[in-house]
Amino acid sequence: MKSTRYILLAGFLSMIAFTAQAQQWVASWQASPQPVWAKDFAFPTGIPQAIQDATFTHNVMISRGGKRLRLVISNRYGTAPLVVEQTTVRRKIGSAGLTDAPKTATFSGGAAVTIAPGQQAISDPLDMPVADLQQLQIAHYVKAKTALETFHWDGRQQAVFRKGNQTQSPLSVADQVLHHTQARVFLTRIDTENASPACAVAVLGDSITDGNGVPIDSNTRVTDYMADTLRSAGIGVINAGISGARLLGDKMGEHAMARISHDVFDAPGVTTLVLFIGINDISWPGTAFAPTQHMPALSSLQAGYRKLAALAKSKGLRVIGVTLAPFRGALAGTPLDNYYSDQKNRLRLAVNAWIRDVGVFDAVVDADQLLQDRHEATKLDARYDSGDHLHPGPAGNAVLAQAIAGQVRSCR
Q1: Are residues 287 and 358 in the same domain?
Q2: Do the domain assignments include residue 411?
Q3: What helix, strand, coil percent values describe the chain, rounded to 5?
Q4: Where would one find the signal peptide in this protein (predicted)?
Q5: pLDDT digits (tens, 9 = 90+) for 19-63
């Protein structure tokens, strides 16, 4: 009888250990970091050069929920240590913008965190149960004068810098406002703790992935629709899009090969990579963005895709390639009205033919076919066009998301 009790106790302890091991962290939200560019660039950054005794407050919508969460704060492009005195998280409740009480995130047990240049900090697990597609409000307080050198330009959410420590005040409180913005600073990723097996999809892309073209605060990016579709399968989605990003070139962010490790491989639980990038490589040359550059050779673009796909596969990821969408008339009437040309479109078509046929990718989603006008294949279908003839609006993103989600396999 005594030995039987020992066996039962050992079995019980084994069950506890297994249960503990069966939990895993999975990336649930991301805003890929970018270096802040110089004032002479075509677009303003939308953020102050520096802040002091100020709080930055912004909203996010995660993909997968969980019993606990943790935050990742980045100083990737900083040239000096970043000191964040306090960071709070609160859940948004209902559609009226109400929030519950904030909780302070800790780092190694303390509210403040110092992050060396080029590094990031991951918070301690925060006991805050969150649902799938949970909207959160995050506030960061900085006391010392701090240069803002790392950011995410196209956040597509209203955010605000306010005077003093406002980490206990919701975004709806308009007191002491210093600056309104749609960019993001400090926070670069949120992970949630889930029962295993759990996994995530990362979409590495440009402004189409980043959500340019959707209404502010609408959460209608392609990755938002993917998250809604895939959550029933227990799959999270992170957005590794940067507006202006290129496969081969830098400027509004590092080129894809330079950032894939940080933006994709470092994110826990990612098992699928979606590559949806390359239109800016084709279209920037000759515009105000890159007036002296020439269009890349098809072979250069092919080599870039091959390298990314091979590296991702070597890490055990499944890779989905996405063709480049139609863009005739893109950005007409703006300083970038030569973004489109027939020559650039011919290169786009050649890239798409290669993506479809080469066999480099585990699966292909044909955004060109999905989004094109049925009477003029070089143009976006008006139903899917945001209005600038380059970026899909919410309806286009929904169609694209369904197609991509259909190629994602279950967690393993």
Answers
A1: yes
A2: no
A3: 25, 30, 45
A4: 1-22
A5: 455 899 999 999 999 999 998 898 999 999 999 999 999 999 999
